[in-house]
Design brief:
555 residues; alpha+beta; Beta-Lactamase; five-stranded antiparallel beta sheet; 19 helices; 12% strand
Length: 555
């Protein structure tokens, strides 16, 4: 829809002044709309947070007069959380605040249905709230899927968290661009900083980029030794063993310092309290005040992203025994800043991974809460699936996907009747058909979550059969996604191995017999072969409670 024909909710068109303002904000509106559509599967009406004017009216939303919401719009836009601004059962109006990098404030609003209206239910009041005729409101409600208010708010909070992370990353990238524009040193110095910026990849650790920086700096800075002291990393809640718990010293040339000595020197110089590079030359340091006579000249810079410090970079002793000056100090400071930005990016990525880990763990716990008798099943399936995938030679990305899919493969059982899940006897045909819906329910639950694109096919198809007799789509052979074939074997193994309300866990011999009979019929024969190659280890996984697996890391 072009801006010059953009309708307002009350049927009028934008004024010339408002049109010009909307044209300036069009990129912001486009970005905001894209995020909201990914999260909620629908367009939102966008209002200016200060004036209350409509910038974009969602075409498939109920038409309403927004002029009476000016004060509400200002209040919501100035806040930092989603909230409902109208609640006339069964209609809810959700509003989210948004602020761009220039400080412009917006409010995004959309109407949702909290439940399906009853037959002949009086919709007069909610229709008046939306400025609609009763028949029009009833027709609109009939076209909507009901949403839980708590889920709408939680999803809104996740969207706002994503906005904050995006703004933070943009600020870091802007700072990186500013550093690049201010470089006025020699070609070698520019080349060094360019190569470092090219290395700013989340997949590259601070240790790897730091080692490269020291190697490249040795070609440019006239120092006998270079040292990088990296600070400990904060440990992840889901994988505490993945954090660096002790300082790490990297060096090139004649470093002359170990970690305790380097730490003592930093404390002596007070470097931890300053963000600027510190230059120390022998002529400016008295012998009485300098406990390291082997250090004649030195530059120290802090690795910082403006908020946190991630380590210290040092050049030690000029190769000509001359003094270090501003040129060397500025270059060292620039390299330290780039390494600091990389450290900040890694920290942000870890935070995002922690948020995703929390969502996955919460969903997995919800499955266990539905059926305590299978507590731990999803965790075991995740570990078994990862081990099978390793046996099949899958890469680390696939292992991560399978671990997540194993944890979430039964998430759709949240929507299955408790009485059926916990039934001790044989299920009727009708009950079995009801249980089979959990794959599609799980797919719908996870569909709008970021980072779940690779997990969705596994959740949807892990009950397909190699011979095409499974569900929900009766896929056969290699038309079934590989991850789903692997999780199918892992799921079946733990189910047969574990005690259930209606039977005790099967003996290993019986399980192996079933897999041999089902290979090429129910299960992928290659995955079954992998099962037999590592079955002893899989038995230990299901026998003992698995240890926490490093989240998003199987390298």
């Amino acid at each position: 829809m072009s801006l010059d024909t953009m309708p307002l909710a009350n049927g009028t068109t934008l004024s010339d002044d408002t049109l010009r303002a909307a044209e300036k904000k069009a990129p912001v509106v486009s970005e905001l709309q894209a995020m909201l559509e990914r999260a909620y599967g629908r367009q939102f009406t966008i209002l200016d947070g200060r004036s209350g004017e409509v910038i974009f009216a969602a075409p498939k939303q109920p038409h309403r007069d927004w002029t009476r919401y000016t004060e509400i719009c200002r209040t919501v836009s100035a806040g930092n959380r989603p909230e409902f601004i109208d609640d006339e059962d069964p209609f809810l109006t959700l509003a989210l605040p948004w602020q761009d990098n220039s400080g412009n404030e917006f409010m995004a609003a959309a109407v949702f249905l909290s439940r399906k209206p009853e037959a002949n239910e009086d919709l007069g009041a909610p229709a008046r709230m939306l400025g609609m005729e009763v028949e029009e409101a009833a027709a609109w409600a009939a076209s909507q899927t009901p949403c839980q208010p708590e889920s709408l708010l939680r999803l809104g909070e996740m969207v706002l968290d994503g906005v904050k992370l995006r703004h933070r990353i943009r600020a870091l990238l802007a700072e990186n661009d500013k550093l690049a524009l201010n470089l006025t040193a020699t070609y070698e110095e520019i080349s060094l900083l360019y190569r470092l910026t090219q290395g700013l990849k989340i997949s590259r650790s601070d240790e790897e980029l730091g080692a490269l920086a020291l190697e490249w700096m040795q070609e440019v800075i006239p120092a006998a030794g270079l040292a990088l002291l990296l600070a400990p990393l904060p440990t992840a809640k889901t994988a505490p063993q993945t954090g660096r718990t002790q300082p790490l010293l990297l060096s090139r040339g004649e470093c002359l310092l170990d970690i305790p000595q380097f730490s003592a020197l930093l404390k002596h110089l007070g470097v931890e309290a300053t963000k600027h590079p510190l230059v120390v030359n022998r002529t400016t340091t008295s012998q009485d005040d300098w406990p390291w006579p082997q250090i004649r000249q030195m530059i120290v810079a802090v690795l910082s992203d403006g908020e946190s410090s991630y380590g210290w970079l040092a050049a030690i002793n000029h190769v000509s025994d001359a003094e270090f000056g501003t040129v060397e100090a500025n270059l060292l400071s620039s390299v330290a800043a780039i390494l600091g930005i990389h450290g900040g990016n890694i920290a942000l990525y870890r935070q995002q991974a922690e948020m995703l880990a929390g969502v996955v763990r919460a969903l997995s716990s919800a499955i266990d809460a539905k059926d305590p008798y299978t507590c731990g099943h999803s965790e075991r399936v995740a570990h078994v699936a990862v081990r099978l995938a390793k046996e099949l030679g899958c890469d680390s990305k696939t292992l991560t996907t399978l671990y997540l899919a194993g944890l979430l493969h039964d998430i759709g059982k949240i929507g299955i009747d408790d009485g059926i899940l916990r039934k001790s006897g044989r299920l009727s045909d009708e009950e079995y058909e009801h249980v089979k819906r959990h794959t599609q329910i799980g797919h719908r639950i996870l569909h709008d979550l970021a980072k779940m694109e690779e997990v969705l096919p596994v959740v949807l198809h892990h009950h397909e059969s190699w011979d095409g007799r499974g569900y929900p789509d009766r896929l056969a052979g290699e038309h079934i996604p590989l991850g789903a074939r692997i999780v199918a074997v892992a799921d079946a193994y733990d189910a047969m191995h574990s005690d259930r309300p209606y039977r005790k866990g099967m003996a290993d011999e019986r399980i192996e017999e079933i897999f041999r009979q089902g290979a090429g019929k129910q299960w992928d024969p290659a995955v079954v072969e992998a099962f037999f190659r590592c079955r002893e280890e899989l038995h230990r996984i299901c026998q003992d409670r698995p240890q926490d697996t490093p989240f998003l890391s199987f390298a």
